[in-house]
Sulfatase-like hydrolase/transferase
Amino acid sequence: MSSAVLLGLSMASLGAADEKRDAPNVILIMSDDQGWGDVGFNGNDRIKTPNLDQMAAGGVRFERFYAASPLCSPTRGSCLTGRYPFRYGILAAHTGGMRAGEVTIAEIAKKKGYATGFFGKWHIGWVKLEDGGSRGYYSPPWDHGFDEVFATTSAVPTWDPGVTPKGWKSWGAEGGEPWKGGFPYVHNGKEVKENISGDDSRVIMDRVIPFVRENKDKKFFAAVWFHTPHEPVVAGEEYKKMYPDAGEMRKNYYGCITAMDDQIGRLRKELRDLGIEKNTVLFFCSDNGPSDGMAKKGIASAGPFKGHKHTMYEGGVLVPACAEWPGTIKPGTSTEIRCATVDYLPTFAKLADFSFPKNDKRPIDGVDLMPIIQGDADERGKDLFFGYRRLFQGTNGMAIISGNFKLLHEATKGGGKTKLYDLASDPGEKNDLMSKMPEKAAELERKLQEIDSSCQLSRDGADYKF
């Protein structure tokens, strides 16, 4: 597919399928704060991720896959809407809830006859009305197209999710006390009090498997968003024993990732046991780069890339990602074309043969991934934009990738520098080209401001009625 075709992807053309086929089941798996280098398929020979490695080997490995923001909440909204977070007003964690006017993959799926399920960390609105607090935005998954819901609002310990880990010194309760009241999960609006101990990834998957089994003869869409390896990072003893030569923090970090990997393997096996793996697309990515603390301590890894969560550098937004669709995606596929979380909705819309009404002119920022995966596209055809904003702290990070060039405004409190990099020759972002290529910097700055202005119009009501 040519760049002109990709550039022409619009609301009216999202559902125009080149050839008719049965729409597949789609599952979006996402980890939390897992760095690009924290999986075996990206070269980590210490962390055990055999199931993710098999998934990548059996399908496509995205070598350059980007989160829409270097932190969780904004990225999560982008996965469901195909739009930059600045369009729907979630500029950082806990700074907004998903707006009713946004159209999500789940809402599209329901219109196309899919069963829909959400499982895990939501974090784009509170899931308990009474927990809103001073900056709460009650906007649960069932308000956005999901019928079956097992969710928390935000982070929980990765082992015993209702209990604050011993030795925990950061935000939240003291060690041994209940975590967020002790019952952070809700199931279809009701607080959950059973089967919420032990490995949190297993707790989530225990709800995913019945949903898959119940809908095996139908079409279904599921978002499975693990908390792992977001802090508080804790692993069960059986997983910590897999890393006898590691220190305690590494045992917990590596162990909880391996525990999550086991549950992904459990899901893959279930699809095969049910005989529906060839009609199910399984996507995996992280929501942003590794956490600041874990990265600075050398425990979490952004691979060869600079930065971590909360930074606009590659390490903050470049994440591990792969997809598997047996019989459709050729095993051993890999692509260096830049892809992103905003691409999930256009991809699903094409697969499900869905098109928006002609009078719905809202911008969709992603592209259909299937031409890239199947080798029919040799470039993305669209620029990529990233943002993270907390103006009361002086944080206003933004970045744009256009071709191989990246312009970024550092996301640092009190403001930061503007830098220009050529990612083709300098993927590690070591050589700032601002002084050497002022015209290119000015060109990208204009593009960045144009996107930011477009996002502001969307945010202020241009795309739908408030």
Summary: Residues 446 and 452 are 10 Å apart (CA to CA). Residues 384-459 form a domain with the Arylsulfatase, C-terminal domain fold (CATH 3.30.1120.10).
